[in-house]
Amino acid sequence: MSFSSDEVNFLVYRYLQESGFHHSAYTFGIESHISQSNINGALVPPAALLNILQKGLQYTEAEITIGEDGTETRLTESLSLIDAVTPDIVAARQNAHNAQKQAIKTDPGSGGEHNGVDGTSCSTATTAGGEATPSAPETMDVDQSIEIPASKATVLRGHESEVFICAWNPSTDLLASGSGDSTARIWDMSDNPATTPNQLVLRHCIQKGGAEVPSNKDVTSLDWNCDGNLLATGSYDGYARIWTTDGTLASTLGQHKGPIFALKWNKRGNYILSAGVDKTTIIWDASTGQCTQQFSFHLAPALDVDWQTNTSFASCSTDQCIHVCKLNADKPIKSFQGHTNEVNAIKWDPQGQLLASCSDDMTLKIWSMKQDTCVHDLQAHSKEIYTIKWSPTGPGTQNPNMNLILASASFDSTVRLWDVERGVCIHTLTKHTEPVYSVAFSPDGKFLASGSFDKCVHIWSTQTGGLVHSYKGTGGIFEVCWNSRGTKVGASASDGSVFVLDLRKL
Fold it and tell me: Is the pTM of this model over 0.70?
């Protein structure tokens, strides 16, 4: 029996549909070209993927428990799906358990099997790697002086699904968050310890049958304008929206066909830029809500955009290409090619001279408008690089005496800091144990916050690469951000929580 990648893709697509992950199914269907496969979906029974996985699990259990001589060994535990793909580790765990059990039986001073469950000590816990490690309270592997106390953390509850993004208002301590529950929220984090932070709920609705109903689509992106009086949001429902700080919907921007993946205000605040699954990028007039120009140069979904000036920008895509476009120009003024997998994020340096890009090809590249090939091809990460950020330092910034640094966050669980002028990695930050989804520099460039799916937010010194502060939340961290004064870090998580860390007098 064999199977093709088309068949696997169809089973995954059907599973996403059946599980209610409709936007994920939609995007996955487009990227995997489901419509072009020759599979008759009517012949595929419900829950087909789960049934196949379950049968595979049973086969793996049989493979592990039945020895070469035909004798059967009882498993000490039921197998998980992850165990099924690591049968060697399961077998090693089984052997270790049997050896430990035998040792207890032959040691008269051990007290039999009463020091733990089924002969294992109460002071051990099994890690994902299958090794026994001392169990510990739910704290981080850092000094107590580094760990941020609960009294310095404000947990904000209200979202009903994962919170993908958060961003501080540039003028006041308002924190915006966007979630899979089809809402954005604005939290008032002004210093008033006597009250619970006030939240405004920005419900993303669509017109259906003459009435407004919740879109039931993820809010994927949000950005404050430079004055902090308007918030733009992008959604999987295909609409961008502009809101005032009191939660009033000011404009609905409808031109994309399908989910919006990214959007940004320009510095002047008169244009908004968006990128979508429909392969296009759009410049919007913020005052009228009208599409000023739509750019259709990518051959696949556009994943990220970043302004270079008030009228020129770069965009990247799953088509592995980067285009630099300008308002009123009918073709890209520059195109960069060199990545060998989809380009996840792009960022211009503070001067708009150098463009950094990161990709699933595990590289990050630095580009200049002065040449066609990349200035630096930086290869050090061992898995996909999800995002990048420039420090707010270097010539022409408010922090001219500090070197310009680029931070990269990867699924290999590390963050790297790069001296771009020399093209070298100056620090590798290794305390995270799961993919790192977000990094953010403090306004003075002296610190870097990182957020990972290990539920931890770490604060690092950019000068030494040392860990300064840490906090463990209750869900995987999608986004971290600093307020304008550099005194608070906001974070959003997969369990629907948003939290704010107060770093004053720590």
Answer: yes
